[in-house]
Structure formats: C-alpha cells, structure tokens
Design brief:
Layout: H1 6-13, H2 21-26, E1 32-36, E2 39-42, E3 47-49, H3 53-56, H4 65-77, H5 89-101, H6 114-130
Antiparallel strand pairs: 1-2, 2-3
Length: 143
C-alpha cells in the first residue's frame, strides 16, 4: 500500500497543537522518525538535541537500553491496570521504594503530569485540614 510521503501525510492529515496551521502548510517541516539518546533524527537524517525531552515526558532519552528493557519485561506481564478499585504489583513495589527514599512520607499518589500532581496535593492538604482531630504542626492558608 502506498500513499503520500511523510511530510505530505503530516501536512494533509495532522492538526498540530499550538501551531498556526496556515504557516505550517507553507513551510518545509521536520518529520522525526527516530530517537537516539538525547537526540531526535528526522527523515532526512538530520539530528536535533531534544531539549524539551519530547515535552518533558522522556527525561531518560530515546532508546536507552536499560529503560527499554525494563518496559519490555513489564509488558510481558502486565501492560496496564488501573488503580480505580484495584491494586497491581508494579505500583505497590514502586510505592514501597519511593516511600523508603522520601523521608517523612508514607503514601504515594500516582499522576501523569505536574499540574495534576499540584492539584492532588492541594486537595489532600485541604482534606487533612477538614478532618477533625488531625494533628497540625503548621497553619495552612489557601488563598
């Protein structure tokens, strides 16, 4: 099955976030085809330092064997299991390790981004303040 080239397929079928599409349609665009360590490589073989870690979600680099192997090994056992009313081995084992590292903490709340983490932390702090009989060492003010 053949179709348009990568750049043409992108131009025809992808709507890019945070992008003025009228300008995007007029210029030559980079089409990334692979990652190598901390670099991205386009379809013409040009290398770019991935300075945003692919929007902050890939801080370990691309194709790092230790990370890829750990992911591959985990995928053999369990690709995904929610924590909504269920528990799973990877989340329990990681939480145990994190609590041992983070002095003074006794639970882990998993989230997928910084803004959700801040929102959850604020809600947890407010919940503690709302519960009668909770020991409070400091006054927390939320404006």
């Amino acid at each position: 099955m053949s179709g348009p080239g990568l750049e043409e397929a992108d131009r025809r079928f992808v709507w890019h976030p945070y992008t003025q599409m009228r300008d995007w349609q007029k210029q030559e665009n980079r089409v990334i085809v692979r990652g190598e360590g901390f670099y991205l490589v386009d379809d013409k073989g040009r290398r770019y330092l991935d300075g945003t870690a692919s929007m902050w979600c890939n801080v370990w680099g691309h194709g790092q064997n230790e990370v890829v192997e750990a992911m591959r090994e985990q995928l053999k056992h369990l690709q995904h299991s929610t924590l909504f009313g269920l528990a799973n081995e990877p989340s329990a084992r990681l939480a145990e390790r994190l609590v041992k590292i983070a002095k003074g903490m006794d639970r882990v709340f998993y989230t997928d981004n910084g803004s959700t983490a801040i929102e959850a932390a604020l809600k947890m702090a407010l919940q503690v303040l709302a519960e009668p009989g909770q020991a409070r060492e400091k006054t927390v003010r939320v404006a």
